[in-house]
Task: inverse folding
């Protein structure tokens, strides 16, 4: 009963955010100068031609009318047309989203497993070599931009060692698993690199905190085996803050994907967004932004539910730690 | 948490180390605005893509421009983005956070829902969205990055102010019949700034990172400016042939970011010892 109420509240929040975001994206795209008709016709278009196209596209209607038209079309599954590529935006975004999801899922798995494993190891082996290396490297790893890691990775693994392709993507069906995977390795590693440091650092400190708590002491005092103390008592509680951080990292990951896809010329959603900005393809940009926001909002929603499921205290107050 | 911490003689080694590096970089970048070994925009076609030599320690780029001069001339752009964006987020975030905490009611609702909305977009995308439509430039990058961190500053300021409002000394001031502004000015702000400064110190790193990433995507200062992210983007084409064009600005950016990060961590240790202690909650 309580959980249902919590779920409903969060769901309403999710819808509110998506609605607000659609307003914000629409306003920014439409209020700032940068005319769609000019973008379609090119800079040498005659004023008459521009005016005619503006009428055809409905750009003279009041903004609320235009907004409503866009929103209701989206709710009906019509995502509009890309101006530059002359294709339905839904088709372009669907393809690109799938390829970006590949990067995101692999990177996220790597960050989660690698980060938690390293953090756990560091917490249980405090002061040893790996722990020291990890706590020193956090300053460096977290402070280096993804695009520079990407450049270094291309330089080392593609230019010098010639182990992996520098850029591009080949579909699985066309090229077979080896070449398909070869194009994914570098982008995924670059995306995961900095975030592993982030997650492991947080897991380490919350694990240390939990290990010093009274219920762990009590469990040990009852003579429970150490691995059972770690896995059954300490870890589930230590992972609570990690979930929050993973949700934040999902946002960093999405931003990282935009940059990393650009460096590796990987045809995903991030590159499509940058392309639509460069070419002034505003309808594509609007919908692309909306899709990314929705993905991020849903990821956060899932993180909140997971957090609540693991930590019953949160449901009563609705506050976040 | 107290102001007394500032006067204590102990200065964390991270702060010293990072501060020294940062000071050197800032001086080099400030000098670089006016003076560089070569003209950072002068073409010298015969000298194009030369590897590092004594005359050109970081080599030359595809137009024969001296990479070292370009790195020095462009550094202030990254610094301006990081610290400018921080200033913007302070300028808007702190007052809005205080208003939200103090005023409550409908005003708080409006401010906090806007904050929720802006936070619900990943930072790079919010930056992209703001910069997407109009022609790019340094001032716009700073504004966009600043906007990204305004909501974070609002949340933090509000949280800090709300907890201070519960404190006895604020209750006492209220009981004395002091008005809202004097309470804000004399009671809340002096005690609220340590956590705010700590947050700023840690956020500057991310602001510089975000600014350079946006320039890398072509949404920052435009050529022939030598913003480091932009230089890396331009040098990508010659990565195999002349890696120094990318490596020089890239490594400079890394040194800058690591030192800013160290300063941020050091500030945190100094101003907020409780936070930096691990597992003592």
Result:
């Amino acid at each position: 009963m309580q959980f249902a109420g919590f779920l409903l509240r969060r769901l309403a929040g999710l819808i509110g955010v998506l609605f607000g975001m659609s307003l914000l994206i629409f306003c920014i795209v439409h209020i700032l100068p940068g005319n769609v008709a000019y973008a379609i016709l090119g800079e040498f278009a005659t004023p008459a031609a521009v005016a005619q196209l503006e009428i055809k596209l409905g750009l003279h209607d009041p903004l609320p009318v235009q907004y409503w038209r866009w929103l209701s079309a989206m709710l009906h599954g019509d995502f509009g047309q890309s101006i530059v590529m002359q294709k339905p935006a839904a088709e372009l975004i669907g393809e690109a989203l799938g390829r970006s999801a590949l990067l995101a899922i692999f990177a996220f798995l790597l960050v989660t497993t690698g980060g938690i494993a390293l953090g756990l190891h560091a917490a249980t082996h405090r002061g040893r070599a790996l722990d020291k290396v990890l706590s020193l490297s956090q300053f460096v790893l977290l402070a280096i931009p993804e695009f520079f890691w990407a450049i270094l990775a291309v330089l080392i693994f593609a230019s010098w060692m010639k182990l992996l392709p520098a850029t591009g993507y080949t579909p699985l069906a066309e090229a077979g698993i080896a070449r398909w995977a070869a194009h994914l390795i570098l982008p995924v590693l670059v995306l995961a690199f900095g975030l592993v440091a982030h997650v492991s650092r947080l897991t380490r400190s919350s694990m240390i905190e939990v290990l010093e708590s009274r219920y762990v002491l009590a469990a040990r005092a009852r003579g429970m085996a150490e691995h059972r103390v770690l896995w059954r008592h300490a870890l589930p509680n230590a992972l609570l803050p990690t979930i929050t951080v993973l949700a934040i990292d999902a946002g960093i990951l999405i931003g990282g994907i935009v940059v990393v896809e650009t460096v590796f010329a990987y045809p995903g959603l991030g590159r499509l967004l940058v392309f639509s900005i460069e070419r002034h393809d505003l309808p594509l940009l609007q919908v692309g932004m909306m899709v990314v926001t929705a993905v991020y909002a849903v990821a956060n929603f899932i993180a909140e539910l997971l957090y609540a499921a693991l930590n019953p205290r949160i449901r009563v107050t609705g506050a976040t730690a | 948490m107290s102001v007394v911490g500032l006067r204590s003689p102990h200065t964390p080694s991270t702060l010293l180390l990072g501060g020294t590096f940062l000071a050197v970089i800032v001086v080099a970048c400030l000098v670089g605005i006016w003076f560089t070994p070569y003209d950072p925009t002068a073409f010298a076609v015969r000298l194009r893509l030369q590897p590092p030599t004594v005359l050109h320690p970081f080599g030359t780029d595809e137009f024969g421009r001296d990479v070292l001069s370009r790195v020095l001339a462009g550094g202030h752009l990254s610094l301006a983005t990081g610290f400018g964006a921080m200033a913007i987020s302070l300028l808007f975030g702190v007052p809005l956070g205080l208003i939200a905490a103090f005023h409550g009611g409908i005003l708080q609702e409006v401010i906090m829902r806007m904050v929720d909305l802006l936070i619900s977009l990943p930072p790079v995308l919010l930056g992209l969205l703001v910069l997407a439509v109009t022609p790019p430039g340094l001032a716009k990058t700073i504004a966009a990055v600043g906007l990204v961190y305004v909501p974070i500053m609002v949340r933090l300021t509000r949280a800090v102010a709300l907890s201070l409002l519960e404190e006895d000394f604020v209750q006492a001031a209220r009981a004395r019949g002091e008005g809202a502004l004097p309470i804000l000015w004399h009671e809340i702000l002096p005690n609220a700034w340590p956590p705010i400064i700590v947050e700023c110190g840690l956020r500057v790193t991310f602001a510089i990172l975000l600014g350079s990433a946006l320039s890398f995507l072509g949404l920052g200062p435009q050529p022939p400016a030598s913003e480091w992210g932009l230089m890396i983007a331009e040098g990508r084409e010659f990565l195999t042939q002349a890696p120094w064009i990318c490596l020089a600005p890239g490594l400079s950016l890394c040194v800058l970011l690591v030192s800013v990060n160290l300063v941020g961590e050091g500030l945190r240790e100094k101003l907020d010892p409780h936070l930096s202690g691990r597992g003592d909650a």
About this structure: Chain A touches chain B through 52 residues (CB under 8 Å). The CA atoms of residues 121 and 131 of chain A lie 8 Å apart.
